[in-house]
Amino acid sequence: MADEKRKNRRPRGTGCIYKRGKIYWIKYYRYGKSYLESTHSDQESKAQRLLKKREGEIAKGELPGIYFDKIRFEEIAEDYLTDYRINQRKSARKAETYVEYLKESFQGIRVTEITTDRIKKHIEKKIEEGKSNATINRQLSALKRMFHLGKRARKINEIPYIPMLKESNVRKGFFEYEQFLILRNAVPDYLKPIVTFAYHTGWRRAEVLNLTWDKVDLKQGIIRLDPGETKNEEARTVYMNEELLKEMRTLHSNRRLGCPYVFHHNGKPIIKFEKSWNAACREAGLKGMLFHDFRRTAVRNMVRAGVPERVVMKISGHKTRSIFDRYNIVSDQDLKEAARKQQIFIDSQNESRMVTKQLQSAEVPPLNP
User: Fold this and answer.
1) What is the C-alpha to C-alpha distance for residues 358 and 48, in angstroms, rounded to an integer?
2) pTM beyond 0.85, yes or no
3) Which of 213, 255, 315, 351 has the fewest C-beta atoms lying within 10 Å of its C-beta?
4) What angle (nearest 5°) sits at the alpha carbon of residue 339, between those of residues 336 and 342?
5) Closest-CA residue to 317 (of 249, 244, 223)
6) 75 Cβ partners below 8 Å, 6+ apart?
7) What angle do CA 107, 110, 116 make, to 5 degrees?
């Protein structure tokens, strides 16, 4: 025992290795303060590597890893939710949902133990539960954000590699005009103007339901949203077409005094209407359609009408090209129309070729007998 102590003795202020029972411990110093840390191992080589790592961190001016070992998943998750709250992000509820899903795999675990391998096991578990790649990726994005916030707050030393899944499950639902009319007739009266507005503008559900009369200028036929009132935090101006303007004037003439909302139910803001929506879709023979399908419908209709895509993005509120492309979906009708136009072009080419041949043959003088 005495020989072992002499073996591990170092000059004052430097680290050393020693045993407690069968487990090796290390001792090191930072700014004159000593730190004791268990290696949780009975192998001296592991203790030597850990001591070297800690002394290297201190030499670089970094906090030794023992600080980070104290941080657990719940702390960085709460910091993530706090960041959403103080920045008043509109998707705070979704953030809370992502945290709940992540807790199933990481609750009570030290952040330093959330490795790439452990993250992959979480992914496998969610796939087995039938979660879509898009849903899993939103959870992984939340976890990645937690780590980056933790790194910024010096609660995390290293960010593990977080693999993302390929998203090929892009929804392709949209309404043809006849379907829109059938559905509008099937929904309750208070939802009819909402359906009309969404069909023409492609606005997000929350943007539609939260619209207030102070944003509507019926004289100029304009609707304006200020920065911070949209998901992408950018201002938006929409000029209403004739049908939408007529609908808005009718709503304004019948508006409920004291209620600031354009769309309401008996003077109260509309929050949920899933039951009424699903019942109307079944009645209209459109089971499985989503309110969000109006968004891609409006985008497709405006592009079909020849509206420049950058203008469509301004109206619908798409900030990035990659997301816009997911909504600008080509339908079977578009493909049929493309084939029809292609055939017209080919026929015109054939017709032109035949005319050219006829002209050429007419110019050739007949042979002498």
Assistant:
1) 94
2) no
3) 351
4) 150
5) 223
6) 111, 155
7) 90
pLDDT digits (tens, 9 = 90+) for 250-298: 999 988 888 999 999 988 999 889 999 999 999 999 988 989 889 888 8
> Which tokens hold the place of 70?
């104290």
Tokens of 190: 């208070």
How many Cβ atoms are within 10 Å of 268's Cβ, its own excluded? 10
CB proximity list for 185: less than 8 A, separation 6 or greater:
284
In this predicted model, what pLDDT tens digit does every residue of 180-226 receive, in sequence order?
999 999 999 999 999 999 998 888 888 899 999 999 999 999 898 87
Report residues of the chain scoring pLDDT below 50. Answer: 1-2, 4-13
Rounded CA gap, 194 and 274, in Å? 13
DSSP string for residues in 158-205: -PPP---------------HHHHHHHHHHS-GGGHHHHHHHHHH---H
Which residues pair with residue 24 across a beta bridge? 19
Backbone angles phi, psi at 17, to 5 degrees: -115, 140
